[in-house]
Write a structure and sequence with these properties.
Chain B: Residues 126-427 form the NADH:quinone oxidoreductase/Mrp antiporter transmembrane domain. Chain B: It is found in: Endomembrane system; Membrane. The structure holds 2 protein chains of 2 kinds. Chain A is 71% helix and 1% strand. Chain A is mainly α. Chain A has one domain (7-428, 449-481). In chain A, strands 1-2 form a two-stranded antiparallel sheet. In chain A, strand 1 (62-63) and strand 2 (68-69) form a beta hairpin. Chain A starts with 10 loop residues before the first helix and ends in a 7-residue tail after the last helix. Chain B contains 19 helices and 2 strands. Chain B is 74% helix and 3% strand. In chain B, strand 1 and strand 2 form a beta hairpin. Chain B has one domain. By secondary structure, chain B is mainly α. A two-stranded antiparallel sheet of chain B has the order 1-2. Classes of the chains: A mainly alpha, B mainly alpha. The interface between A and B is medium-sized, with 32 and 31 residues.
Chain lengths: 486, 496
Amino acid sequence: MTAHEDPAAFAPELILLVGAVVALLTGSFVRQERQWSAQLVAAVALAGSLVAGATAGASGQTLYAGSYAIDAATFAARLIVPAAALLVLGLSAGRVRGSARESEFAVLVLLASLGTILLAGSTDLLLLAVAYLLASIPLYALAGWARDPAGAEGALKTYLFGVLLGIVMFLGIAVLFGLAGSTSYADLAQRLPGAPPAALALGAVAVFAGLLFKAGAVPVHFWVPDAVQGATTGAGAFLTTVPKIGALLALYRFVLVLPDDAINWRLLLALLAAASMTLGNLAAFRQDDPARLLAYSTISQVGYLLMVVVVADPVAGSAPLAALILYLAAYAAANLGAFAVIAARPGPSTLTDYRGLARQSPALAGVLVVSLLALVGTPPTGVFTGKLTVFAATWDGGWAWLVVIAAVNTVASLYYYLRWIAPAFARPDPATGPAAGPSVPGSPREALAWPARCVIAAAVTTGCLALLIGIVADGVLDIGSAAIKW
Amino acid sequence: MLSLLIFLPAAVAAVLLLARVPDRVALWAWLVTGLVTVGLSVGMWAAYLHGHGPGQFGFAEQVPWMPGIGSSYHVGVDGLSLPLLALTAVIFTATAVYSLRERQQPRSYAALFLALQTTSLGVFSALDLIVFFVFFDLSIVGMYFVIAGWGHGPARRRSALLFFLYTFTGSLALLLGFIGLYVASDPHTFDIAELAAHPPLTGSGAAGPLVLAAIALGLAIKTPTVPFHSWLPPAHTDAPAAGSAVLAGILLKMGTFGFVRIAMPLLPEQWRTYAWVFVGVGVASVLYGALVALAQDNFKRLIAFTSVNHMGYILLGLGAAGLAGDAHARSVAVTGALVQMVSHGLITAALFLLAGVLLDRGGSYDLTRYGALAGPAPRFAALTTVAAFASLGLPGFSGFIAEFQILAGSLGPATPAAAVAALGIVLTAGLFLWAIHRLFLGTPRTGQVAFADLSARELWAIGPLLALSVLIGVFPQSLLGVVTPAADHLIALVGR
């Protein structure tokens, strides 16, 4: 713990904050048709934060009286969150460009990204609470950004859930503070083992509740489908990808302060993981709206991610943390890729509207296949290596039954992902012709405006990333080789 | 050199897709690539025979991939894999010849098959469980698109989905087994050679049988054996002829190859304990496949079910190898199983291509709609008859060598099973003769279309496959020279 602070160590977060302020000011002072400059500011800030985060590495130091750690988890968040947010800006360019709230979108993305990174790095319950608010409040606005009835419903539902579970979480923090007399993780880890188990369980479960809300896990997942369906595609992509990164890393860090013998939090999380992957899958079976399908798919994906938290350990070079980071990075790429394909075909759509996509736009069809097969966990994509390491770490931790449930769920999930792939490769319907579906940018005949190009570029980038992460998995695993600090 | 062989087809496929070459060029590039892979695999075979003893891996390459979790890109060949590599090259080349007239998106078609070839070569060369799994799984993806994209019949997408769901389930069971091996090994590794040197689950109680069950389930679905075969007939019926040839000729061998490469040497103790299960499943597949094939009027479904029958023999031989008994006899059974893999690949690929000719001319596989084809199509009749006789295991063909060795080898360790399985030979003989009778003899059916004989292209695709079967049947030493030492080595590993 260091008392004197080094502002440079906090650079990735500061860049995002400054970027948000500059983007907000830019948006306020620049005329409507120049609003893209705010987007540009946001993109530069995200890229800058990414570079700063990459160069900072995982030094293992703690900042601000031990309330914020620059360790493997924070390092991972500093890389994955800005990269994912950049891709979200790219894939939402087609929808956001020219709208009245263009700069707001960029600012909200920046602030939510900042909150998410803080969530991952917090080693103090009070900072965790602040990060929770900072990561959540922009999302409520983002969910309702389009200002249509569906967006309003999704935003309201997210808001009500977020506030309720936030309060529950703060209650948990208060209880834990009461038990340990401190909110710092280092103190909690020392003082919680002697605490009364009932109170400890109440506090821990209440903190779980807030973090599970951010992750979109069962049983606090009800906001996810409505928010994703109601929100614009870009916002939906952000909601289902970025908050999870912070939530799961924060959860991983938080469970390490809990004493293993007093309460059986591992079993609780294992049951929640199994429920999350199973219920998410079952609900996804019947979905015909691709956005809703992806919403339920993310609920099931959280189940796989939670498996690693069940076997969390603080040891340096430990397999669980590395597996979690690899899975998060791979999942982010795959999920954003699928949303990018939706974004490239604006307008309401069902799975059957994707009929003939392979003929109209081979690039988009390729991204769709790579992304969806990646979500299944087919090699050589990143999620496959992620799943492999997650399964291996979970089994190694003694939770073989959870691995079996996850494998069965993976098979089940295959069905609904294939329901989307199959029409894309079917011949276009001869009765209605290819013109029936929404127009596809990227087809050779169409001259494209730059926002549409941006969407295609984002889609192709995410597709490539989803593959690449699988091939360079070892580099990603290396990020998790440092220990968790508090 | 081995990596060159594995990735050459995929590289050509990438060029075909990205460079947007003309369709005819793409098809010829596919054929030339096939011939190059044949040359490379034969060259490696010859070089291996001169430089390596049994149990040694030739052309091994190892590059760290994920050292953190004990997985590396590790490939190599031995007597178990060389025949299958050569078989892969030959069958893909034959399908390339057969597909030279493909009209529906030939460029993507060629690229897809080339990619499939890379996955097949990769599976047979893999010496790391994850590398094996990656190629194994990708072959499923490739075949899904072959069936869904180029298949025929109204149910093709359903068949493709069924195929994918079924075999993907199998591959995940396989992955669970692999993770089990990984977790049990110390230090944790996915390397097949290291795991074979120190079988991780020896004396482990309940974990060993469970891991073997997961691996065996995955491989049994892919093979397929009764009762996990139900994905096979629809997939075959709706796949294009070249796709069926590859599916039956190569992809099914990934399952049986997994038994000899992974299940037997890595879990020897469990294999010995549960060998009777594999013998039983093998015999059941032999009889069930033959009996159901007997009831088929659809020529392609008939061939599909004989595949279940032939795969049953392989499992019988491998199961017998785990039973107590004379080591030499068990080695003969394993040798027979390995020869059967090659033999079945050649013959079934030929049969499926011939079925494709039938569909091409008459628009149907229904045997009841044809008759007396020997008149208008003598070459078609001759090749089909030869292939049928080869498939039922007539002496002089590779199938005879294989089935004779399997039955002779398992007669000692598993006497009743071998006796019952021998019945299957009679059944297949009956069903093939009946099919030939219905197709080629008698009188033409009313409304039968004019039936053109085999073109030179079809002859060049199918003829060499049957010629190779005869070559193995007449000079078995050409194949046994590399297979027998590998089988002996495998028996030694299982006997530990």
